[in-house]
Design goal:
With about 300 residues, the chain is α+β, with helices and mostly antiparallel strands. It contains seven helices and nine strands. The C terminus is likely disordered.
């Protein structure tokens, strides 16, 4: 009967989907993790998984450069058995077996960087654990894009590092902002700032609530003031469903407003321009290579 077949199909779909869901770590699950931080990433629609994988790979590379490689998995015991040295043919066979085993073995997962499911189109979150500093690593990633003109991913778009996560309610945001912001506002130097809230799939809080709320948490130890045009620090307030992330970045405009694709395009054009042959300063023509006669050599 059609209804029965439809019911079985729906049941199978729920079972398969449920199994997949059980193996995904959701963003809301890390709210109770002390010191949880990471990077909110916007990406191309339908490419959330691929973009997250690309970002995890890049963050792992820069994390290793800043903090050293992660601890390697312990090797299996069994060396030094006192057996006779293997022959050359045994060495080759053992090498082939080892290479095949390495290909079949599951890839080592990072303990510092983990992609979490946001259940939201075009949005991903990558959790960073100590000793990683999300803001520092993201700044390094963007500086690399400026240097090379390459984005390293076609799908990763904007990166928003946050120092801490909390529940998206007034009291939790006030407590978290009070904890996070002193790092960026020293007592001995006044700084200018702008608050940049982004709200997705959330209706309880608005920009009109978030901006004064976060501004009230900026330390009053110096004459820090708002500057919407040219701020030294941009405070990021990322609200997604019932989660809020708070962080801050410097050089916001120079870093392409944290948009990897925009920055790569802009920097790629600059790199290409720098590779053009130099022009003659007087006539504006391309400089010709000096001949041996011009260099003073005998013909």
């Amino acid at each position: 009967m059609p209804p029965e077949r439809s019911g079985r199909a729906n049941k199978r779909q729920r079972v398969e989907g449920g199994g997949h869901q059980r193996h995904r770590t959701r963003l809301a699950n890390v709210l109770d993790v002390p010191g949880a931080s990471g990077v909110f990433m916007s990406c191309a629609r339908g490419k959330e998984r691929k973009a997250a994988m690309d970002l995890v790979e890049v963050l792992c590379e820069h994390s290793a450069a800043l903090y050293g490689e992660e601890d390697a998995q312990p090797k299996e015991a069994g060396g030094g058995t006192g057996e006779a040295a293997p022959s050359a043919s045994d060495d080759i066979e053992a090498q082939i077996r080892g290479e095949l085993a390495a290909l079949r073995a599951p890839r080592k997962t990072s303990t510092r960087v983990t992609a979490l499911d946001t259940d939201t189109e075009c949005m991903c979150f990558v959790q960073c654990t100590p000793p990683m500093d999300a803001a520092r690593v993201v700044a390094r990633v963007l500086e690399d894009v400026i240097k090379t003109g390459e984005s390293r991913s076609r799908f990763v778009q904007r990166l928003a590092p946050v120092d801490a996560l909390c529940r998206a309610d007034v009291d939790a945001i006030r407590a978290t902002a009070t904890q996070v912001l002193p790092r960026y506002f020293p007592a001995d130097r006044p700084r200018t700032y702008r608050i940049e809230p982004r709200i997705r799939s959330h209706t309880s809080l608005s920009r009109d609530v978030l901006i004064p709320l976060v501004a009230s948490c900026i330390p009053d130890t110096a004459a820090h003031r708002a500057d919407l045009a040219h701020p030294e620090v941009v405070i990021l307030v990322e609200v997604l469903k019932n989660v809020c992330g708070i962080g801050a970045v410097e050089d916001y405009e120079r870093l392409g407003k944290l948009n990897v694709q925009t920055l790569a395009q802009r920097s790629g054009q600059a790199v290409a321009t720098s590779r053009v042959a130099p022009t003659d300063a007087v006539h504006g023509t391309k400089a010709k290579p000096a001949s041996r006669a011009d260099a003073g050599d005998a013909p």
